[in-house]
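Sanity check. The docking grid for heme C depends on where the pocket ends up, so I'm generating a full predicted complex first rather than guessing from homology. Inputs follow.
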Amino acid sequence: MPKHIKVLLMLLALLALAFAGGKWFFTPASFWAYGHYRAASVDEIASAKPKFLEPAAFSATYPKQYATWSDGIHKVIKCQDCHLAQLDPQATGGALPTPRDSLKLCPICHQRIAGRPATQPQIDLASHYRGQQCVSCHDPHSPLFSPAGKPIALAAAAGGAHADVAAGKTVSVRCVGCHGPAGVSVAPTFPNLACQKETYLVSALNEYQAGTRTNPVMGGLAKALNRSDVRNVAAYFAGLPCAK
Ligand code: HEC
Ligand code: HEC
Ligand code: HEC
Ligand code: HEC
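Predicted complex below; grid placement will be based on this.
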């Protein structure tokens, strides 16, 4: 046999040996127990602790925030949606990392975007927060209340967001068929809204929405309005001249 063929065969034999050795050395012990699969990984996955926990898991550690959240409108959002799900609470001993910058966090869901469904409460960032952190006015766990626990609408009276009368006029096209274009109703069974007290109109609409005041017609109409619609349409009708 020529010398160069011998060398080639020897090299091939060495390679085959290295391959067999590598296969023996690197194959995990549990491989092939259930087929072409590392059986031990099943136990590893089964024993992994979940990183994303149900809010109830934090109720014992943070009873106060959990109680506020349970009563509030943000109950649809789980703790770790805001408290950074990607950080493993196990690594921090069960503690939730605090979102420090609400100006980054809250607009993710609340910034006004043309394609966002109207059912999601939205704000115009530029005019709404006026340079302050969202949490300086809203309790993040129950955002219709201030951090001090006062209803946020009352805070509005003390210089918060203002009603938009022009937007209210747009909403009122749904109402004038019964309540009249000038807020003076077209039938004796429909109440006038013109020059009614604004706060009264807001609370009447809120009651229809909540179902504490029931009327087959107004119930459905009111439920189709969001918070700003209510505020704006109330301001619009309240500002119309009184019926003569
Ligand atoms: C909508 C977002 C959001 C949700 C949902 C939320 N949090 Fe928070 N949480 C915040 C923000 C923002 C702060 C920081 C408030 C501040 O800076 O004043 C905070 C602060 C806290 C704090 C105080 C931490 C500190 O360092 O002062 C605790 C404790 C807490 N949250 C627990 C919870 C628990 C428990 C839940 C679930 C039941 C929850 N949070 C749900 C946004 C949220
Ligand atoms: C993951 C999305 C999400 C984040 C983040 C979030 N929210 Fe909300 N928020 C919602 C949803 C959804 C609702 C409506 C809940 C409902 O109507 O049942 C809501 C409701 C509200 C409301 C009540 C609006 C109304 O007209 O009834 C306010 C105020 C509010 N959020 C403020 C905040 C503030 C302040 C922050 C930051 C601390 C924040 N939100 C962070 C999703 C979010
Ligand atoms: C200066 C106080 C203040 C700050 C700061 C503030 N808000 Fe508000 N926000 C209010 C008041 C008051 C209301 C209720 C009156 C109203 O509906 O306009 C409100 C209402 C809302 C609503 C409900 C709007 C609707 O029409 O349904 C959302 C959502 C909201 N705020 C989100 C935020 C977010 C997100 C931030 C931070 C970027 C923020 N707010 C910062 C005072 C504030
Ligand atoms: C199909 C007719 C109809 C339409 C459209 C209608 N309403 Fe009404 N509304 C009524 C009737 C009837 C009542 C009296 C219901 C009752 O007794 O509770 C009423 C009552 C009210 C009240 C309570 C007034 C009071 O004095 O207590 C308010 C506020 C109101 N409507 C606002 C609106 C707004 C805002 C719209 C438009 C989004 C609207 N309505 C559209 C028929 C209508």
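Relevant for the grid: The CA atoms of residues 106 and 238 lie 32 Å apart.
Also worth noting: Residues 73-74, 76-77, 81-82, 102, 105-106, 108-110, 120-121, 134-135, 138, 140, 143-144, 227 surround heme C (ligand 2) (CB under 6 Å).
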